[in-house]
Design a protein that fits this description.
Structural class: mainly alpha
Number of helices: 20
Number of domains: 3
Order of helices and strands: HHHHHHHHHHHHHHHHHHHH
CATH topology of the largest domain: Serine Threonine Protein Phosphatase 5, Tetratricopeptide repeat
Largest sheet: none
């Protein structure tokens, strides 16, 4: 008996899992911004005439950027400007963001405003604009705060990092990279969040080899961080280094790190791309047994890819088994139609007709193929 061709659309199920850049996934805009402003407030209260104990505690904290090359200016408000900064701070604490922006612009334009007052006002305006979801204006204010160069190192570099994050969110990737390169050169930071963010920017610039090199180094230094791992995998895949991506995922799998659907799917699709069909099937079956992989159209498509490969390799019984698993959870009747073809080829006419009828019931692109099996 000759074989009936299977539906060719199944091959499109082989795709790559692309993880979001770490910085985007973590949404560092809000986290870093809040942290920065809390610290700025504690550090400024002395000049604004309140919070002595809080100021003392802030001063005892270790520097966030101990290796910075920048010589910090004397961050202090002039006597004439203290009341203006107090009013600006009060507006910010009251969450009057539109008024914060207006007051900050007024302060920056005052003849008595020095580098400190301008930087502080612009940094608050940047945070206020970001809270109002005016990201373009937020970037402009953060850039002005950095350019005025009046803040202490911690606040100055937190503002610079905020600028890079906003630029990234606005898809100004080249600008974000330039800001991050300056940030890293001046802070000499090797912190995970900073290095990973730069790698994410490089990925969005399609400089995948550079991004992968950073991520792989971060994986080596942070072997239990899954976000870093998945971003490293995505960068390697995007750079066509599938074998290296698979090695990272295999190692993580052996250490029990891949506990989510997308993580297991990244591994077994990597195996499929490498034509390691048995390994892919093993991972899928293990994921199903553990409840990590849930029944549904996505899993059905992946089963069909395995089934189609088994059919091509003349593993007819395995192909029928895999199509049989896929068919009930598939979005349409194509898996049932392929199952019917495999069963008919195996000489199991009654079972083939039953599958063909189910294919018609769920809907297929070529119903005549199912009707032909029913008529034979």
């Amino acid at each position: 008996m000759s074989r009936h061709p299977l539906t060719v659309a199944l091959t499109i199920a082989l795709g790559l899992l692309v993880a979001a850049p770490l910085a985007a996934a973590q949404d560092p805009t809000a986290t870093t911004r809040t942290k920065s402003m809390r610290e700025q407030r504690a550090e400024r209260l002395a000049e604004l005439g309140k919070g002595k104990e809080e100021v003392k505690q802030a001063e005892q904290k270790p520097a966030m950027f101990p290796n910075a090359t920048r010589v910090a200016p004397e961050a202090k408000a002039s006597g004439k400007m203290v009341k203006n900064l107090q009013a600006l701070q009060a507006l910010y604490e009251q969450q009057n963001m539109a008024e914060v922006i207006a007051k900050a612009e007024d302060i920056a334009a005052m003849p008595a405003a020095g580098a400190y007052e301008k930087s502080y006002a612009y940094s608050l305006a940047g945070n206020a604009a970001a809270d109002l979801d005016d990201q373009a204006k937020a970037a402009d204010y953060f850039a002005k705060a950095v350019a005025a160069n009046g803040l202490d190192n911690d606040s100055h570099f937190n503002t610079m990092f905020n600028l890079a994050v906003i630029q990234f969110g606005n898809e100004k990737y080249a600008e974000a990279l330039a800001t991050m390169d300056r940030f890293l050169a001046e802070t000499r930071s090797d912190k995970l969040e900073h290095q990973a963010f730069r790698a994410g920017v490089l990925s969005n610039l399609e400089r995948h080899d550079e991004a992968a090199a950073i991520y792989k180094d971060l994986v080596a230094r942070n072997p239990t961080d899954k976000r870093v791992l998945m971003n490293a995998v995505a960068a390697l895949q995007n750079g066509d280094k599938f074998d290296q991506a698979n090695l990272l995922l295999e190692d993580a799998y052996k250490r029990g790190m891949l506990t989510e659907t997308r993580e297991l799917r990244a591994l077994y699709i990597g195996y499929m791309n490498a034509q390691r069909w048995a390994d892919a099937q093993k991972v899928i079956e293990d994921g199903v047994a553990k409840g990590v992989l849930k029944p549904g159209p996505d899993l059905a498509r992946d089963y069909q890819v395995l089934a189609q490969n088994a059919y091509v390799d003349d593993k007819i019984a395995l192909a029928a088994e895999l199509y049989g698993r896929a068919a009930p959870m598939a979005a349409d009747g194509e898996a049932y139609l392929n199952l019917a073809k495999v069963l008919e080829y195996s000489g199991k006419k009654a079972e083939a007709k039953a599958a063909a009828q189910k294919a018609l019931d769920k809907g297929v692109k070529k119903p005549d193929e199912a009707r032909n099996i029913l008529s034979r």
